[in-house]
């Protein structure tokens, strides 16, 4: 009986071993069947970097538009192309539509010039635009508001009307 058990164990071991060898052979064959991808050839180009013009809006002075790019080179297939672009409508056009500035708070009103000013430092320039590092803007001072004497008379009228209603 023990010899029969021993023979059965050897058969199971042999079957497992053969299955293991078969699996290894199958995996090795699958890997051998895969073709190795040749490395991509690096193209050496005589083409220069793209130089982009400013964004020109399709309509108005902001919104969607286009810009043209050019590059030089003897063997360039493409030396000009057009790209879509967008000029944000909330940017200060006064300093260039492609330059964004971070502004300080408005300064005090200069009584001699009746203007108040503030400065802005360059925050971002779109597509390598040529922007000033700092800019200064001015605007007229708002009207100096003095308390109107009519306001007091309106309050008195309202209070008088309230008292009349209470008496009624």
TrEMBL record:
<dbReference type="InterPro" id="IPR020089">
    <property type="entry name" value="PTN/MK_N_dom"/>
</dbReference>
<comment type="similarity">
    <text>Belongs to the pleiotrophin family.</text>
</comment>
<comment type="function">
    <text>Secreted growth factor that mediates its signal through cell-surface proteoglycan and non-proteoglycan receptors. Regulates many processes like cell proliferation, cell survival, cell growth, cell differentiation and cell migration.</text>
</comment>
<dbReference type="GO" id="GO:0005576">
    <property type="term" value="C:extracellular region"/>
</dbReference>
<dbReference type="InterPro" id="IPR020092">
    <property type="entry name" value="PTN_MK_heparin-bd_GF_CS"/>
</dbReference>
<dbReference type="InterPro" id="IPR038130">
    <property type="entry name" value="PTN/MK_C_dom_sf"/>
</dbReference>
<keyword id="KW-1015">Disulfide bond</keyword>
<feature type="domain" description="Pleiotrophin/Midkine C-terminal">
    <location>
        <begin position="96"/>
        <end position="158"/>
    </location>
</feature>
<dbReference type="GO" id="GO:0051094">
    <property type="term" value="P:positive regulation of developmental process"/>
</dbReference>
<keyword id="KW-0358">Heparin-binding</keyword>
<feature type="region of interest" description="Disordered">
    <location>
        <begin position="139"/>
        <end position="168"/>
    </location>
</feature>
<dbReference type="InterPro" id="IPR020090">
    <property type="entry name" value="PTN/MK_C_dom"/>
</dbReference>
<protein>
    <recommendedName>
        <fullName>Pleiotrophin</fullName>
    </recommendedName>
</protein>
<dbReference type="GO" id="GO:0008083">
    <property type="term" value="F:growth factor activity"/>
</dbReference>
<dbReference type="InterPro" id="IPR037122">
    <property type="entry name" value="PTN/MK_N_dom_sf"/>
</dbReference>
<feature type="domain" description="Pleiotrophin/Midkine N-terminal">
    <location>
        <begin position="34"/>
        <end position="95"/>
    </location>
</feature>
<dbReference type="GO" id="GO:0008201">
    <property type="term" value="F:heparin binding"/>
</dbReference>
<keyword id="KW-0497">Mitogen</keyword>
<keyword id="KW-0339">Growth factor</keyword>
<dbReference type="GO" id="GO:0051781">
    <property type="term" value="P:positive regulation of cell division"/>
</dbReference>
<keyword id="KW-0964">Secreted</keyword>
<feature type="signal peptide">
    <location>
        <begin position="1"/>
        <end position="32"/>
    </location>
</feature>
<dbReference type="GO" id="GO:0050767">
    <property type="term" value="P:regulation of neurogenesis"/>
</dbReference>
<dbReference type="InterPro" id="IPR020091">
    <property type="entry name" value="PTN/MK_diS_sf"/>
</dbReference>
<keyword id="KW-0732">Signal</keyword>
<dbReference type="InterPro" id="IPR000762">
    <property type="entry name" value="Midkine_heparin-bd_GF"/>
</dbReference>
<dbReference type="Pfam" id="PF01091">
    <property type="entry name" value="PTN_MK_C"/>
</dbReference>
<dbReference type="Pfam" id="PF05196">
    <property type="entry name" value="PTN_MK_N"/>
</dbReference>
